[in-house]
Amino acid sequence: MTHTARRIGRSLALVLPVVLVLSGTLAVSAVPWAGNSSGTELLASSTDVSTPAKSRAPQDVLRDQLLAELQEKDPGTALTHLQREVENRPSLAKHCMSIAKSLGAAAVRHYGPTRAQSFSRPVCDTSFATGVMHAS
What we know:
This protein has 136 residues and is mainly alpha-helical. Helices cover 64% and strands 0% of the residues. Helix 2 packs antiparallel against helix 3 and helix 2 runs parallel beside helix 4. 20% of the residues are buried.
């Protein structure tokens, strides 16, 4: 057992410094000051990296998801999911009307006013229909 341990130790003693030197060399060559401008530079911008990224409000995330769903499927499916989300998370109820209006306006842009109106439902006090009407 000691012979095997010695062999492993000797192998590590020979291989480990080589691996460390190579990885250090590769790490230093990848930084922007190495002179190789291959497009893999660090992204330094005018934004302050010490400030945390602002998280998006749940209603904005939901609005974006539903607008994408409206494009992929149809406004009826998006309205059904809006109603379910408002039922599951009552805190979204105060934003339901604005989200439904946005869906209505997007439906007009995607389907035209007549077809968009055909998807209208009594979700959020018929705000979807209001959005269709204002976008027409």
